[in-house]
Amino acid sequence: MKVRFWGTRGSIPVSVTSPDIRKKLIFALEGAIGRNLDTREKIETYIDHELGFDISGTFGGHSSCVEIDIQGAEHIICDMGSGARPLGGDMMARFGPSGQTYHIFMSHLHWDHMMGFPFFTPVYIPGNRIVIHGCHDNMEGAFRLQQSAPGFPVDFSMLGAKIEFNRMKPGEVYEIAGLRVTAKLQKHGGDSYGYRFEHCSKTVIYSTDSEHKLEDIYESESFIEFFRNADLVIFDAMYSLADAISVKADWGHSSNIVGVELCQQAGAKRFCMYHHEPAHDDQKIAHTLAETRRFEEITRYDQPVEIISAFDGLEITL
Ligand SMILES: [Zn+2]
Ligand SMILES: [Zn+2]
What we know:
- There is one protein chain.
- This protein has 318 residues and is an alpha/beta fold.
- It has two domains: 2-14 and 58-317, Metallo-beta-lactamase, Chain A (4-Layer Sandwich), CATH 3.60.15.10; 18-30 and 38-56, no CATH class.
- It has helices at residues 18-32, 40-50, 53-56, 84-95, 139-146, 217-227, 241-245, 256-266, 282-299, and strands at 2-7, 65-69, 75-78, 101-105, 129-134, 162-167, 173-176, 179-186, 192-199, 202-207, 232-236, 270-274, 306-309, 315-317.
- α6 crosses α8 (256-266).
- The mean pLDDT is 95.
- The structure holds zinc ion (2 copies).
- One zinc ion binds at residues 108, 110, 188, 209.
């Protein structure tokens, strides 16, 4: 099973700017002074092992969109944030423009999780089948509204693909596209739903836009059960702990610290911070990643939990 991240930013897409790139270049070239980087191999080793990812890369980028690849005949996607645009192009290059079935699991209907849908080219092509799964009762209305005038030039009714909506019930187990899928209600404005995907003894949790109150023991227990023994937990870690319990309490998102604690108790193997705060730059996200890794080390009481921070282009093989 492979998990590919096409959009990892929360609330609104964020682009690196020219001044950001200039700063990264200056830092990298300064660090290269006196290193005798006279071959491509040496340059690549320097970039990959000496520079931090906050200099050599970027956490990006597009808003929420994740692909789960089990090499099946049908395709599995979580959310349709702006990352759905490059995903659509890539999938058409891999599988051809038509004759494909795409299963899309919607966490909820906030615009950062839907805005990529009108730019996901397979929806325009006859012969494709798009099945939108979710637990909200107004899914179809929300998708139609997003493409209605004057907000967008192409009405939903003009889409060429066959589009279906599948309303799921939280807590029920479904077999979809070769996966066992279970949805769970999460605390978020207008509700959101997390998904547990299981395939060939591998488990991925997609849990974004979810606020956790650790003082609510019953709620915490239910998430520990939902995350139980997962190979990967993709988690809304938008805020620092300080923010999550003070100014941004009840804003519908969570912190890295809460996520690590839930994963430790659930026996999860990997914790992936996701839905990055748009105001945080690469340095800040890298700092949070380092801090989270330290927190996991000093609080570890059983097996280690690998800590990852999602970025557009990240691929994890389970
Ligand atoms: Zn969001
Ligand atoms: Zn939201």
